[in-house]
């Protein structure tokens, strides 16, 4: 029997595992409990070898996932960062480590950490209403849980930097053109088209898919060190005044003031430079 999940829906039907983030009131943003339930649901598919493929999506028609829930992320700091970061890394490695293909069925906004969730999947099929993007620079977060590792591999270094530094978003049709996703279909046919993919996969050799997924992941699995590095970078971001300004501004529907942090740092640099200039004019101590 499936676990009694509170924030996701989980169903196994016709040898397909359907996993749905069920928080449409916050555009399927995830928090700690959501991540724990997603990890558990994906891992549970290992206990049923008759499952041929897993599909992850978001409830409702508005969003696949808007990423991390700000109310959860604003509680993070250097001391407790691992409790969030380890969950993100755990979900990513669970999806990548499954012996079956994982399809991201993107039905709407797929942003920030939600887009990183899509990046961990093997295949992405999207509604023509879907949009993909990285918003970390807007809100004071750091997209180092897959975005910095995989986006350059998919769409090239220059376009990846534009996506991350300029928070560029891609509508689904354009996302197909640049290689960010596999397929864009009319919104009304998204489920049916995804089911066609599932039926196709069910007709293929499970052991072949298992072996070839492992082989396909070989090179990018070596980016694990970058993930660990990214977790440490992210731990320094959580709880900082700058990150809190970005998230509070988003929640308050105002433009964040990041320039005040640049100006404060400038004052410290000017002060430092004046000190060392003054020290340089002093006679060296006698020995």
TrEMBL record:
InterPro entries: ClpP/crotonase-like_dom_sf, Enoyl-CoA_hyd/isom_CS, Enoyl-CoA_hydra/iso, Enoyl-CoA_hydra_C
Listed GO MF terms: 1,4-dihydroxy-2-naphthoyl-CoA synthase activity
Single GO BP term: menaquinone biosynthetic process
CC terms in the record's Gene Ontology section: cytosol
Family: Belongs to the enoyl-CoA hydratase/isomerase family.
Name used for this protein in its record: 1,4-dihydroxy-6-naphthoate synthase
Xref: Pfam families: ECH_1
SUPFAM superfamilies according to UniProt: ClpP/crotonase
PANTHER family reported for this sequence: 1,4-DIHYDROXY-2-NAPHTHOYL-COA SYNTHASE, PEROXISOMAL, NUCLEOSIDE-DIPHOSPHATE-SUGAR EPIMERASE
Highest taxon above the source species: Bacteria
């Amino acid at each position: 029997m499936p676990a009694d999940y509170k924030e996701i829906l989980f169903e196994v039907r016709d040898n397909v595992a359907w996993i749905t983030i069920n928080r449409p009131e916050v555009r399927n943003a995830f928090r700690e409990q959501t991540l724990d339930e997603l990890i558990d649901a994906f891992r549970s598919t290992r206990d049923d070898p008759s499952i041929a493929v897993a599909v992850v999506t978001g409830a409702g028609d508005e969003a696949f996932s808007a990423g991390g829930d700000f109310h959860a992320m604003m509680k993070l700091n250097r001391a407790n960062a691992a409790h969030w970061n380890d969950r993100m890394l755990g979900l990513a490695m669970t999806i990548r480590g499954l012996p079956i293909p994982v399809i991201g069925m993107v039905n709407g906004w797929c942003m920030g950490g939600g887009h990183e969730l899509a990046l961990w999947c093997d295949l992405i099929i999207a509604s023509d209403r879907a949009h993909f993007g990285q918003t970390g620079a807007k809100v004071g977060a750091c997209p180092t849980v897959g975005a910095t590792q995989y986006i350059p591999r998919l769409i090239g270094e220059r376009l990846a930097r534009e996506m991350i530094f300029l928070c560029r978003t891609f509508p689904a049709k354009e996302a197909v053109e640049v290689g960010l996703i596999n397929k864009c279909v009319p919104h009304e046919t998204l489920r049916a088209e995804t089911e066609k993919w599932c039926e196709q996969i069910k007709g293929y050799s499970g052991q072949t898919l298992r072996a070839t997924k492992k082989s396909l992941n070989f090179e990018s699995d070596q980016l694990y060190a970058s993930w660990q590095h990214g977790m440490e970078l992210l731990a320094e971001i959580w709880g900082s005044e700058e990150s809190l300004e970005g998230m509070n501004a988003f929640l308050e529907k105002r433009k964040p003031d990041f320039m005040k942090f640049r100006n404060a740092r400038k004052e410290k640099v000017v002060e430092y430079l004046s000190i060392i200039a003054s020290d340089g004019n002093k006679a060296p101590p006698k020995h």
